[in-house]
């Protein structure tokens, strides 16, 4: 499990890559999460709170991820995977 400082660095990396960008597609392995509802949303920022990673959207929603190493972000044709330690 990533530690707090690692989550903080990942949040900074993701924020630089994603801030003010629009979600073009989304999916989740958790059935109750309607990832398709994020399509079209614009990302306002990314922050770390302890071992939680929060992605904030301009419409006021936030996506919380406790196991941040499971997030995969594709930007244009480049795949970005923040270094969260362990198992990459």
Structural class: alpha+beta
Taken from the alpha-carbon principal axes, the silhouette is globular
Mean pLDDT: 79
- Topology as a string of helices (H) and strands (E): HEEEEE
Low confidence ranges? none
Helical stretch tally: 1
Q: Would you report the number of β strands? A: 5
Distance between the termini: 12 Å
Task: Report on the biggest sheet.
Answer: 3 strands, antiparallel
The Cα radius of gyration reads 12 Å
Side-by-side strand order of the widest sheet: 1-2-3
- Helical fraction: 10-25%
Q: Strand fraction band?
A: 25-35%
Topology:
Layout: H1 4-18, E1 43-49, E2 52-57, E3 62-65, E4 73-75, E5 78-80
Antiparallel strand pairs: 1-2, 2-3, 4-5
Account of the protein in words:
With 88 residues, the protein is α+β, with helices and mostly antiparallel strands. It has one helix at 4-18, and strands spanning 43-49, 52-57, 62-65, 73-75, 78-80. 17% of the residues lie in helices and 26% in strands. It has a three-stranded antiparallel sheet, covered by helices on one side. The two termini are 12 Å apart. The model has no long low-confidence stretch (mean pLDDT 79).
